[in-house]
Amino acid sequence: MDRTLGLDLGTKTIGVAVSDMLGWTAQGITTLKIDTLNDDYGIDAIGELIKEYQVKTIVVGLPKNMNNTIGESGERTMYFSNLLENNFSGVKIVLWDERLSTVAAERALLEADVSRKKRSKVIDKMAAVFILQGYLDSH
């Protein structure tokens, strides 16, 4: 069974989650350091993850405004998804509405009584889990 990768794009990091072999659950695996201002989107590192986990689909969280419009971060995400398509031709790229994923991740970490310092280290990875799990649950 092929796996699905979930990505939560920020300006300095990308949270990464991967599905289990059956495509039922999402697990956070890493946070990649990136630099979008210098056009560094971690493409090489993502390529390694695609190989390691035999990924056939990448779900990228698309941040939309609450009124369903696309803002600056949504534009950056669309640029990033085009980079993925151009670099990984055999991989399906899916944009997934992520409006509340970071909020849900933050709430889950607060409920688990995770300290602020630890939360900041795992929030992107957790958001990627919420994005990917939402996609998996819909299929």
From TrEMBL:
Residues 2-105 form the YqgF/RNase H-like domain. The keyword Lipoprotein does not apply. One of its GO terms (molecular function) is nuclease activity. The keyword Hydrolase applies. GO terms for cellular component: cytosol. It comes from the Bacteria. Its EC number is 3.1.-.-. This is Putative pre-16S rRNA nuclease.
